[in-house]
Amino acid sequence: MKKLLVVVMLATFAAAPAFAADVYTYEGKGVVTFNHKTHADSLGCEACHQGEPAKIELTKDSAHKEACKDCHTAKGGPTKCNECHVK
Ligand code: HEC
Ligand code: HEC
Ligand code: HEC
Questions:
Q1: Which residue has its alpha carbon closest to ligand 1 atom 3?
Q2: Phi, psi of 42 (to 5 degrees)
Q3: Is 36's C-beta closer than 6 angstroms to any atom of ligand 2?
Q4: pLDDT digits (tens, 9 = 90+) for 18-57
């Protein structure tokens, strides 16, 4: 019974992706806001996820390179410290 429920839920996810959160915030140096939904809508999942989309562990280093900033440099998103780190 439980197994069946998991299968049904996975199928639902595959058909209509529902995020755990539309917007993520990272606190440390000020607050960085990542709007997952608007990024996903405009760029498509495969811009950031390889294979089946799943959680990405962000680190300071990855955020400042391939996970966030590299694409901003290439496609015109925010690249200055205080454009991402808002007080
Ligand atoms: C594209 C957005 C972006 C830009 C531009 C950016 N950062 Fe970040 N930075 C992040 C994100 C996201 C994290 C959080 C990663 C995490 O959760 O560990 C982070 C983490 C950090 C942290 C660690 C904070 C903590 O306490 O964990 C520091 C310090 C930092 N950035 C400084 C800077 C400085 C200085 C600049 C400019 C040279 C800069 N960042 C530019 C997105 C950005
Ligand atoms: C601009 C990059 C980017 C795009 C585009 C993107 N994601 Fe993500 N996604 C992330 C990051 C970063 C995380 C991790 C956020 C966190 O937990 O701090 C994540 C987390 C997730 C997770 C696990 C947590 C959750 O919210 O459920 C799923 C599932 C997911 N993404 C699916 C998708 C799907 C499906 C799409 C396309 C419709 C998509 N993503 C588009 C960057 C992106
Ligand atoms: C694959 C490309 C790509 C990746 C990866 C990406 N972004 Fe962006 N981002 C963009 C683009 C393009 C814009 C400009 C969109 C606009 O202004 O209409 C943008 C805009 C933003 C903005 C300003 C607008 C808003 O949504 O508030 C923030 C903040 C931001 N991104 C944070 C992040 C963070 C944090 C990450 C990493 C977790 C990230 N982005 C990863 C492409 C990307």
A1: 84
A2: -90, -25
A3: yes
A4: 789 999 999 999 999 999 999 999 999 999 999 999 999 9
Distance 68 CA to ligand 3 centre (A): 7
Q: Which residues contact 12 (CB under 8 A, 6 or more apart)?
A: 18
Which has the closest alpha carbon to 19: 33, 39, 2?
39
Q: How far apart are alpha carbons 37 and 24 in whole angstroms?
A: 10
For residue 1, count other CB atoms closer than 10 A to its CB.
4
Query: How many other β-carbons are positioned within 10 Å of the β-carbon of residue 63?
Result: 15
56: alpha, beta or left? (left if phi > 0; alpha if psi -120 to 50): beta
| Alpha carbon of 36 to ligand 2 centroid (Å) | 6
C-alpha span between 45 and 84 (Å, rounded): 21
Tokens of 17: 């992706």
Name the token pair of 3.
């197994």
